[in-house]
Every structure is written in C-alpha cells, then in structure tokens.
Amino acid sequence: MTSAQTPEEPEPEAARQLPPATVSRLTLYLRMLNGLLAEGVERVSSDSLAESAGVGSANVRKDLSYLGSYGTRGVGYEVANLSRKIAQALGLTHEWRVAIVGAGNLGRALARYAGFESRGFDVVALLDADQMLVGTEIGWLRVSDAADLEEVLAKTRANMVVLALPASVAQSVCDRVVDAGVHSILSFAPVVLNVPDYVNLRKVDMATELQILAYHAQRLQVPGLDAERPSA
C-alpha cells in the first residue's frame, strides 16, 4: 500500500464538516479562551466553558472531540492549544479581508467596530453609491465609489463582503460581488438573495430576530412574577 493509500492519515481539523450547532458554540468557546489567554490562564475545565456558553458540559466535550481535543480528567484543557485548534477549525488562521458595501448608518457602525480585527477579520474597504459620501473618511477608511466595486475588491484583495444595502439594490450588487470572484457574503439586506451553490451566503435579518425574541419574551415565565399577579 502506498503512502497515498494509507488510511491512518488524520483528516485536518479545518477540513472536517462540523455540525452547524457545534460551529456556533465553538465561536463562544473561542471568545472565552481568548479572554483567558489575555489574563494568563493556562487551563480551563469543560464546566467553565459550558457555563460561559450557556450549554451543558457534555455538549462542550462532544464539540471539542470533533477537534481531537479531549482534555484531561481533573486538569481540563490547555487554553492556548485549544484556542489554536478552534481557530484553525473555524478557518481563522487564514487572512480574511472584508469589504463593506453600504456606508449608511449600519455600514459606518460596522466599519468602526474594533472587534473584527481582534477576531481575525481585516476591514479593507467601505463603498457606497452616494457621491456625498464617496471620498469621506469613516474611521481609518476612505469611502470608495460603488461604481468601482470590482476594481476595489481586486485592489484590496477582499475575500469577504458585507452587504449593508437596501433591498432594491442588494441583488444586483450581490451579483457583481460574485462575478468579481468573492464567494463569502454576509447580507444585512432585508431581502432573500439568490446566489450560486458555490457561494457562502449568510443573512442577518434584525427585524426577524426581534420578532422571534418577542415570541419568546411573551412566553417567558419570570420566577415569582405570576404569583404576584392578582387573579382575574
């Protein structure tokens, strides 16, 4: 059997397909781990990670087992090593260069958000079609003309795009982004976008999230509150 046929070769963590729920929780674990690293903490238990993420410790152990990290009973996980494994699994060891299209209130707020850089995302461009905004400076970025989208994406080597646009123009701009070779898109536009199967599109609809929150809020049972309400 040749080396290429050897079945014992482990699959790289970053190449494994992780369950969506696990991916979401890994981002929470990583945030806590990075905080512990900053404090000089060397080890952490699954119980501590579970508490920070609001899940059970069994979930933590199962999630981390996908990465080949099992911890040591009574000792826990090595913070630096686990942080590195999670970052690799999430693809954060790559260079992610983000362009934001739309310099309205949301786009400007996103451009100013310092948390992107600390999590491995470099915002390299901010674009808008409004000529009153083009050329102005938002934070450390100068707003580029959306008419030059393809040129800006190529020049900045952007490999992710955030769409902070009204529904009326979101699809046409999204099409241009895809045609320009950027296949990872986060959309805040209040509309369903159509993209090819090879494009990774994530949609953030804040109105929908608030509606879901309202649904759960009306069903929320506050301890002691019902007992204080007078009977009808």
Report on the structure:
This protein is α/β, with parallel strands linked by helices. It has two domains: 13-89, Winged helix-like DNA-binding domain superfamily/Winged helix DNA-binding domain (Arc Repressor Mutant, subunit A, Orthogonal Bundle), CATH 1.10.10; 96-209, Rossmann fold. It has ten helices and ten strands. It has helices at residues 20-39, 46-53, 57-65, 79-89, 105-112, 115-118, 149-156, 167-179, 206-219, 225-228; strands at residues 43-44, 77-78, 96-101, 121-128, 137-138, 141-142, 144-145, 160-163, 184-187, 200-203. The protein has a six-stranded parallel sheet with strand order 7-4-3-8-9-10, with helices on both faces. A two-stranded antiparallel sheet has the order 1-2. The termini are far apart.
In a few lines, what is going on in this structure?
The protein has ten helices and ten strands.
Fill in the keyword field for this structure.
16% strand, 232 residues, globular, Rossmann fold, Arc Repressor Mutant, subunit A, NAD(P)-bd_dom_sf, disordered N terminus, 2 domains
